[in-house]
Design a protein that fits this description.
The chain has 334 residues and is of the alpha/beta class. Helix content is 35%, strand content 21%. The chain is globular, with a radius of gyration of 23 Å.
Length: 334
């Protein structure tokens, strides 16, 4: 068969390498037990190496409706993603839901809590009706605590907690990784590394960081920049574990690095709605390297248990909101 005929046939009927599972662009390398795209794959297979199907771990369909509607094929798993949002756009709820959907899929997750104590970070799940105690007990969830060591009197703080917060803190004690000095970017990175090592996270799960603004106030902008480059290379790129970090839009003009540091940027904005007195929440993906993204804004809101939901562009906001008192359950679905 001529080279041109082989090329034409390969394009029409692409073969998959039996080792790396990627398409074979030319004539395959024959081995004893399969067909391979290269001698490297053939030799690796002969040595007993097995590679997972890349579709199984290299993209993440988050389970969050408004986000998935814009990234239909999933977020690349080696991504560092920024949630850049106005106040009131439910950034915290979006991060919480991303973790919950991962736990629902049976995957592990790490929450790096900078702005709140671990019990407050966990309480966000319960506010949505999502019980994370089983995930804590089965080693699928870790909290990296960058808050508690900053308190002047930690004993007084613990003594003043409610009965529920005390119970939750005791139940989660083994799942908390405490960071001694959150102003040291290496300490924070090491806390995340310890947590993902505990959960043996590789090619599965995700990490969230609740507040880059708070981290920057502790460590400074330059150190946060170095921290992000560190965890991007050691967590996202090396392990195929995505990291989602949240920040407000305030002051971003002073920090031009987001476009360079982050693989993905999700913008969350408040806009004036059609109904009097209503501020609508809209979400768009500004950039996401390596993914197909729909270039549009999605209008969304949030409901406990359901999480974030989208409603269509032709929906009258008055059909979704009852005189500004929140979402109407009977009219939410598109």
């Amino acid at each position: 068969m001529s080279d041109q005929l082989w090329t034409d046939r390969a394009r029409e009927y692409p073969l998959e390498c039996d080792h790396c599972h990627y398409p074979i662009p030319g004539e395959p390398e024959a081995g004893e037990d399969g067909r391979y795209c290269s001698a490297a794959c053939r030799e690796a297979a002969a040595d007993g190496s097995t590679m997972p199907d890349p579709d199984a771990y290299k993209r993440v369909v988050t389970g969050v409706e408004p986000l998935d509607s814009l990234v239909p094929n999933g977020i690349p798993a080696d991504s560092l993603v920024l949630l850049s949002g106005d106040e009131g756009t439910r950034r915290a709820e979006l991060e919480t839901e991303l973790v919950w959907r991962a736990l629902e899929r049976g995957e592990p997750a790490v929450v790096c809590s900078v702005a709140n104590p671990p019990t407050a970070a966990l309480e966000r799940f319960y506010e949505n009706g999502w019980n994370v105690l089983p995930a804590l007990e089965t080693d699928r969830l870790r909290i990296v605590d960058c808050f508690t060591r900053r308190l002047d009197d930690r004993d007084e703080f613990r003594a003043g907690r409610t009965e529920w917060a005390t119970f939750l803190g005791e139940a989660a004690a083994d799942a908390v990784v405490e960071v001694a000095d959150p102003s040291d970017r290496r300490e924070v990175a090491n806390g995340i590394h310890r947590a993902i090592d505990d959960l043996e996270m590789s090619e599965t799960g995700l990490v969230t960081i609740d507040s880059l603004d708070e981290l920057e106030s502790l460590a400074g902008g330059g150190l946060v920049h170095d921290f992000l480059k560190d965890v991007r290379s050691t967590v996202c790129t090396a392990r195929f574990v995505p990291i989602v970090a949240a920040a407000t839009t305030a002051g971003q003009a002073e920090h031009p690095e987001p476009e360079r540091v982050f693989d993905g940027i999700v913008d969350l904005r408040l806009t004036d709605g059609n109904a009097a007195g209503t501020r609508l929440k809209r979400l768009a993906v500004r950039k996401l390297t390596g993914a197909a993204v729909l270039p549009q804004w999605v209008t969304y809101d949030h409901e406990p248990a359901r999480g974030l939901f989208a409603f269509g562009p032709n929906t009258d906001a008055r059909q979704v909101y009852d005189r500004g008192n929140g979402p109407v359950a009977s009219t939410q679905r598109r």
